[in-house]
Amino acid sequence: MQRQHTSNRTVILLILGLLSAVGPFSIDMYLPAFQTIANDFNIPVDKVQLSLTSFFIGIAFGQLIYGPLLDKYGRKKPLLVGLLIYIVATLLCIMTRDIEHLIALRFLQALGSCAGMVASRAMIQDYYEPREAARVFSLLMLVIAISPILAPSAGALLLNHLDWHYIFVSLLAIGIIILVATYFYLPESYKGSADFSLRPKAIVGKFWEVLTNKTFLIYCLVGSIASSGLYAYLAGSSFVMQQHYGLSQTQYGLAFAFVASAMIFATQVNRALLKKCSSPQISKIANIWQSLIALLMFAGLLTDTLNFPILLGLIFCYLLGHGFIFPNTSAMALSPFKALAGSASALLGCVQMAIGALTSGLVSFFHNGTIFPMVIVMGVAALLSLFIHFFGGKSADTAAF
């Protein structure tokens, strides 16, 4: 694949960051509204949580569609179609008046938003060598990490003055801005391959080629399972902080912003560490750190000492580890692929979101009015990720790092 270089590097990175963040922003901005939506529809809050699970399922499923399209038709055309789907679905979310339609429309909204996630990862592989790609992933992670700081606070601010539907009005405006920026300012990084077949058998064969690559499989699982702890936190945080600990919507937004700042700090330190350390080394140490935090959370549950300040601090430390794990494992998983960057990116994102959907669904399924479901799922995710890293990472190819 022909690598391209441009003087508009900053603009391109900004747009790639926005494309990566549109999904997370669509998740985080309406989290403070869970109880408000439940009250509006006269339903329990755990049913509103299913709209988050449907979003994760939509992102997981949709990425499998976009991956082959990005390899066949280039990066921009499928990306623009996805953004249009996102805009239409968001418009329909504004008009919905019942939870069943909201759950379905969030699935459709996710199908559109995931185009940006797949395309941005594939474009990084088009432009950069593996080690540099890890640093660029850290930059994108910075943009993604800002969304949990801005989005819940913005959502809470809107809820203080307007109806919850206006959260989706804001998302609609964001989607339109990103569509315009992508169309006019993001250059095509790969023209596509006319030889790439879209027949189901051929597509499955390409995905299988990616999935059976040992480096991809190991680091995809390590990163995805570690990330699933974040999704468990997203699913449970609204209840835990607002209902269990009694925070207001504004206080919840501030608390959410505080713990999200851990990822911003981690991604910037990660960029500096990559000048001296390898991605496998950094991600393994971060795995150990996150698992130690998980054990502390378990100890807090057993001793009934998890008051709000302690839990908030532990979640901050937990997400600190995630900020090191995600960019490094993503770069390592995608490093073996150039011509199949779109398919590899799609499969990576699908696995990440499928496991995220599972963990968020588990938090909702085991909802019992306590903090136990969220904390236990987060802890198990960290420990399982560390286990795979230690026992599977030895057989993965890390020569490029």
Automatic annotation (TrEMBL):
InterPro entries: Efflux_drug-R_Bcr/CmlA (IPR004812), MFS (IPR011701), MFS_dom (IPR020846), MFS_trans_sf (IPR036259). One of its GO terms (cellular component) is plasma membrane. Pfam families: MFS_1. It is found in: Cell membrane. The keyword Transport applies. One of its GO terms (molecular function) is xenobiotic transmembrane transporter activity. The chain crosses the membrane at residues 48-67, 79-97, 103-124, 136-158, 164-186, 216-234, 254-273, 285-302, 308-327, 339-365, 371-391. Keywords: Cell membrane, Membrane, Transmembrane, Transmembrane helix, Transport. It is a multi-pass membrane protein. Residues 12-397 form the Major facilitator superfamily (MFS) profile domain. Signal peptide: none annotated. The keyword DNA repair does not apply. Its main location: membrane. GO terms for biological process: xenobiotic detoxification by transmembrane export across the plasma membrane. It comes from the Bacteria. Belongs to the major facilitator superfamily. Bcr/CmlA family. This is Drug resistance transporter, Bcr/CflA subfamily. The lineage of its organism: Bacteria, Pseudomonadati, Bacteroidota, Sphingobacteriia, Sphingobacteriales.
